[in-house]
Design brief:
The protein is an alpha+beta fold. The chain has 22 helices and 13 strands. Helix 8 runs parallel beside helix 17 and helix 15 packs antiparallel against helix 20.
Length: 616
């Protein structure tokens, strides 16, 4: 067994495999079987080298001393000549030439190989003649290639252009760049992980309406409820005990002409929505910080609709056609809302994550289809949810009420509508006009800021609002009820109280949300929250937590009282409204508790009653 030449821990010069270049390494171990030395480079790289690939540092130092012995003399001679005033012009020219070479050398990138694979690439790409023409301290070297490697640590490399070419060709980088690249990769991976976590956290975890099973049943239950209520109103005795109802033939529920009239109505309102009249305002900031723009022209659309209806009546159009085909219109609206919901869900599958609704991103098809997957679906600047929220259904509600008033006069041969019908029409007209006049206020509601646009809102806006909210007027056509003037006056006062609470509470909230620093609101006190918003503890919002709901319920009662007390059916709207608002109130409570935390608990202590003072 031959004796090992280099001891463990000894610092020597090791040849890089596949090249003629040597680097300073430290011997860490020796394998007696393979006769290979394990050496460690300065960057921590460990390789196994043969003894023939390792040299002592003395041979390199000897060559370096020879190379450096002649260079200082030349530099000193050059310096002495540059100082001599009697130096010949030729010498000065040679000195300036050397100075230019020195500056050129400075412009070149002098990089230590530092164990990078870059040097290995140079050795592979250079010809033997190129290796023999390298410069060391400005001197041409004519030694052999293995002697060239002895002074490689003092070598001046090629310019950056050549280095970049090689790096680009072989994808090799200095170690510092590799480290930076690894750091950038780790940082990128970190942010991707954060994005994945945020995406997972944006999923809807708490399901409402009974979850997947509940929403699946509601998709069928809601249309069935509308048909049931309308069929009941058509009965001579609309008692809830009269069950089961005689069902009409299926073919009688559908008429293509009626569906065409409904489509005409829908697209007429869309045309009014697109008219460049009315101001353009910004909604509340979305989760990504963006603010959508909305054109406020609902009241103008109402005026244009009134003009169109007036023209139809002037030309003797029988508006009670709506009453005669009321069931078919309801079925047409339900079919259209279902088709619209399917379209909305399909297009929502391509929507970016930040555009999905917070409450409709559960990952369950049925639930997301019902609650709405996309928050603000738009076709260009046409906002589908915002349009359906106020236009076709709400204005259609007024048109239906007017049709019922004319139908009552025709069926009962009256020259004037009944006082009950006038009260119902007037109260509900006031409600619709108020909503359209204060159209901008809807931009702060949960329907716009939180709920997606799916079957729930599409069916609610296009079917439930016009055909269930007009239930009292539809009921009075077949079941006229006489109301005395004193009773009518009491009902009017009740409706005015409800409307005042509803409007003033909503105005306080909307004005405070948009500009808390408004001097007109200086009398309002609030609890600051971590979100930067405040919770009002004075005014109507210091009386109960949801005073707008209280006003809604009082008005709903006033709308039903003109129908008398013979049947409970006209009061279905009141019962439904109470259940709806209690559900919304519970949802609002949960949402506000999550959003405002401790501030909401303090608010609940200051304002203990939710909707009804001293009761609930």
């Amino acid at each position: 067994m031959p004796n090992r030449r280099f001891a463990d821990g000894e610092v020597v010069m090791g040849r890089w495999p596949g090249s003629v270049l040597y680097y300073e390494v430290q011997v860490t171990s020796y394998d007696d079987v393979s006769h290979l030395y394990t050496v460690k480079y300065k960057d921590g790289t460990e390789l196994a080298l043969k003894e023939s690939d390792i040299r002592s540092q003395s041979s390199f130092k000897h060559r370096k001393s020879q190379s450096s012995s002649s260079s200082p003399s030349r530099r000193s001679t050059s310096r002495s000549r540059s100082r001599s005033p009697g130096r010949p012009a030729k010498g000065r020219r040679r000195s300036s030439s050397q100075s230019r070479e020195h500056k050129d050398d400075k412009k070149k990138t002098i990089q230590e190989t530092n164990l990078a694979l870059l040097v290995l690439v140079f050795s592979f790409n250079q010809k033997p003649s190129e290796n023999n023409t390298r410069r060391y301290n400005g001197e041409p070297d004519s030694t052999e290639r293995n002697e060239t490697s002895c002074v490689i640590l003092e070598q001046k490399l090629k310019p950056d252009l050549e280095i970049e070419r090689v790096l680009e060709q072989y994808s090799l980088h200095p170690r510092k760049e590799e480290k930076k690249k690894e750091e950038r990769h780790s940082e990128k991976k970190f942010f991707e992980t954060i994005k994945t976590i945020e995406k997972a956290s944006s999923k809807t975890k708490e399901l409402e309406f009974g979850g997947r099973i509940g929403t699946f049943m509601l998709i069928f239950f809601l249309p069935a409820t509308v048909l049931y209520l309308l069929l009941m109103c058509k009965q001579d005795d609309p008692s809830l005990m009269n069950f089961p109802l005689p069902l009409p033939a299926l073919e009688s529920l559908w008429e293509a002409r009626v569906f065409g009239v409904f489509l005409l109505w829908f697209f007429l309102q869309a045309l009014f929505y697109l008219l460049p009249i009315g101001k353009v305002v910004e909604g509340l900031p979305l989760s990504n910080g963006r603010k959508l723009q909305y054109r406020i022209n609902g009241f103008y659309a109402f005026i244009l609709t009134a003009v169109a209806i007036g023209a139809l009546l002037y030309f003797q159009f029988e508006l009670h056609y709506l009453y005669d085909h009321f069931m078919q219109f309801a079925v047409s609206a339900a079919a259209f809302s279902m088709a619209l919901s399917i379209f909305l869900y399909i297009r929502s599958l391509k929507a970016p994550e930040e555009e999905l609704a917070p409450g409709g991103n559960s990952g369950y098809f049925v639930y997301d289809f019902f609650t709405g997957h996309e928050l603000n679906p738009r076709i260009g600047s046409f906002d589908l949810k915002y349009f359906c929220e106020l236009r076709p259904g709400l204005i259609g509600w007024v048109v239906i009420n007017l049709a019922m008033l004319l139908a009552e006069m025709k069926i009962h041969n009256q020259s004037m509508p009944s006082l009950s019908m006038i009260l119902v029409n007037s109260f509900q007209l006031l409600y619709v006009v108020d909503a359209l006049w204060n159209e901008e206020a809807i931009l702060t509601t949960m329907d716009i800021t939180h709920d997606g646009f799916g079957f729930m809102l599409a069916f609610g806006d296009l079917v439930w609002v016009p055909f269930v909210y007009s239930l009292q007027a539809f009921y009075l056509v077949g079941h006229p009820t006489a109301v005395s003037w004193p009773v009518a006056a009491a009902i009017i006062i009740l409706n005015c109280i409800g409307y005042y609470i509803f409007r003033s509470a909503n105005s306080q909230k909307n004005n405070f949300r948009r500009n808390p620093a408004d001097p007109k609101l200086a009398y309002l006190k609030f609890i600051p929250t971590a979100t930067g918003k405040g919770l009002l503890v004075t005014g109507w919002w210091g009386f109960v937590r949801h005073p707008n709901y209280l006003g809604d319920i009082i008005m709903a009662l006033a709308w039903s009282l003109p129908c008398g007390f013979n049947h409970i059916l006209p009061y279905f709207y009141v019962i439904y409204f109470i259940c709806l608002l209690v559900h919304r109130e519970a949802r609002d409570e949960h949402h506000c508790k999550q959003k405002y935390g401790v501030a909401w608990e303090r608010y609940c202590q200051r304002v203990p009653y939710r909707i009804f003072p001293y009761i609930y």
